[in-house]
Write a structure and sequence with these properties.
22 strands, 6-stranded antiparallel β-sheet, alpha+beta, 13 helices, 9-stranded antiparallel β-sheet
């Protein structure tokens, strides 16, 4: 569900409290998200504006956001005109879903100049538009040329026309209801969802004016689960049921950060999915051909027999023939021998011996290629499973792994290359003080198992599944600790939706590297197995981010 005008009216005052603020940096987090780092009377803040068709919003966020190496043209324009300037004010257009930042800067001559940053949070029409003091559009995140909308052109140089106001009453100022009209038809800022909640409250005896007063007094965001989809607003959602209450901006972050993270991964690192799927398709197509060739190679002796018969019967002119029938002197049965119509009898005999020699020598090579192909299929299937649960940093490490493996070409950059950091290994500390480490991709697994873990630590991994390496920082974990670690290993594997997932565990000293294997591949010596039902709630309660 999207923001409505009333919820936006609760967001705007929270941002107004940190103004005026100086714009220090501007980043584009994804194709639809713009992040402003600002500094004002309450210190450093991050202003996030998203124009995603489903997740459009505006808030002050404390999350860490990834930034692409190359900013878009729109971000370059914002940096040119707004970095170093001061956000003076923020005003919402009544209870409509758009508002305006007034920004004061300096011209090249040192004179004061004013710009307006218009933020429209209207579903698929969400946009950010930079307008100068003469109401001329400087640029917009989403340009709308004349052939798309003749009524409202949004592109550089066009006259800016604000979204027309709706002829509706303000429910905070005139909280009376006209019969014959829905709440959405009567009041500005009301979404069908909020109207449904208000109507439910009124059937339970609450007055409309007290409902609006409750909205006015609220500084929280209430989140409920409505038919497996998050529903939210600034009042308790009694029409749905149990709600979780959060501070407004924290609640918005919880709602949207991970939802849009999938979009960020696809937009900023979308080539990962393309490369992995391409390679997986290539290998799965290749395997049947190799298996067919291997079956033919195993039957190489028949070609030797064909050559022997052609020589034994002194077959001469076979040009133009595609096959010949000869009697096998060993079995007494007739054998049909395929021929090359371009060759004579001796030429076909030599051809048969050549095929025999090729297939006999090729058996070992084909077996090696089949094993490599199966390993590649398993490897890329594992990467897709890792991407399903990856955050942005984890996806970037998978991208680095593909570059190192030669599957993905690294983009050349003119800027100085950043020092490569070691893969991040995740950690959780249980209430008994024992630390548990786990990886979320192959590079993290490799770093954890071979560099971070000690020989006496306990190592776990879901049996027969791609997944996380988990290390308990003790040689003899108690049952509760062991089961928690096994839950981690089972959940961060393809078996997360199964029951009684087998998880192997052993001391780290029992592991061996597989020569020439992909990152994260190990060979187990002596190990034991525990069976676990993956429980995401136990992990969530321990502070592990699994959303």
């Amino acid at each position: 569900m999207a923001l409505d005008g009333i919820l936006l009216s609760k967001i705007v005052p929270g941002i107004q409290e940190v103004l005026p603020a100086r714009i220090q940096k501007i980043y584009q987090v994804s194709a639809f998200e713009v992040l402003f780092q600002i500094h004002g009377p309450k210190g450093k803040q991050q202003l996030m504006i998203s124009c995603h068709s489903q997740y459009n919003r505006m808030l002050l966020s404390h999350r860490n956001y990834p930034t692409p190496d190359e900013p878009s043209n729109f971000i370059m324009v914002l940096r040119k005109y707004l970095e170093g300037s001061t956000i003076v004010s923020l005003e919402q257009a009544g209870l409509d879903r758009w508002c305006t930042f007034t920004i004061k800067g300096k011209s090249l001559l040192g004179d004061d100049v004013y710009f307006r940053l218009v933020v429209e949070l209207m579903g698929k029409y969400a946009n950010v538009i930079l307008v100068n003091d003469q109401d001329i559009i400087v640029d917009a995140l989403k340009r709308i040329p004349p052939f798309e909308n003749i009524q409202r052109i949004v592109q550089p140089g066009a006259q800016f026309h604000p979204t027309p106001a709706q002829d509706k009453r303000n429910p905070f100022e005139e909280p009376y209801i006209e019969e014959g009209k829905t709440l959405v038809q009567q009041f500005a800022g009301f979404s069908p969802f909020l109207a449904k909640e208000a109507e439910y409250r009124m059937t339970q005896g609450q007055s409309f004016s007290s409902f609006m007063q409750e909205i006015k007094d609220s500084s929280s965001l209430f989140i409920a689960n409505d038919r497996n989809e998050a529903a939210f607003h600034c009042v308790e959602l009694k029409s749905i049921g149990k709600c979780l209450e959060y501070p407004l901006f924290d609640g918005l972050d919880i709602l949207y950060y991970h939802k849009e993270e999938r979009e960020r991964i696809r937009q900023i690192s979308g080539d990962i999915y393309h490369v992995v799927n391409r390679e997986l398709k290539h290998q799965t197509t290749k395997l049947p051909r190799l298996l067919k060739e291997y079956d033919e190679a195993l039957d190489c002796d028949r070609w030797k027999k064909y050559g022997e018969l052609l020589y034994a019967y002194n077959v001469g002119d076979t040009k133009g023939q595609k096959e010949i029938k000869l009697n096998d002197y060993d079995t007494g049965n007739d054998i049909v021998i395929p021929l090359d119509p371009k060759l004579d009898g001796k030429g076909n005999a030599r051809r048969c011996y050549s095929k025999y020699s090729k297939y006999r020598k090729g058996q070992t090579y084909l077996q090696e290629q089949i094993n490599i192909c199966k390993q590649e299929i398993s490897y890329f299937q594992g990467l897709l499973e890792q991407l399903d649960l990856a955050d942005f940093a984890t996806a970037q490490e998978i991208k680095e792994e593909l570059i190192k493996g030669g599957y993905l070409e690294e983009k050349k950059r003119h800027a100085r290359k950043k020092k490569q950091e070691a893969p991040k290994v995740h950690e959780v500390v249980l209430d008994n003080g024992i630390r548990i480490f786990y990886g979320r991709n192959n590079l993290q697994n490799e770093a954890l198992t071979w560099h971070r873990a000690r020989k006496d630590d306990t190592w776990l991994h879901a049996k027969d599944y791609h997944g996380s390496h988990v290390v308990i920082e003790t040689a003899e974990p108690d049952e509760r600790t062991l089961r928690f670690a096994a839950n981690l290993a089972a959940y961060f594997s393809k078996g997360r939706d199964s029951s009684s997932v087998p998880v192997n565990y052993c001391p780290v000293r029992n592991l061996k590297k597989i020569p020439g294997a992909k990152p994260g591949m190990v060979s187990l010596g002596k190990y034991r197995t525990i069976y676990i039902d993956p429980d995401p709630e136990e992990l969530r309660a321990a502070g592990i981010d699994i959303d």
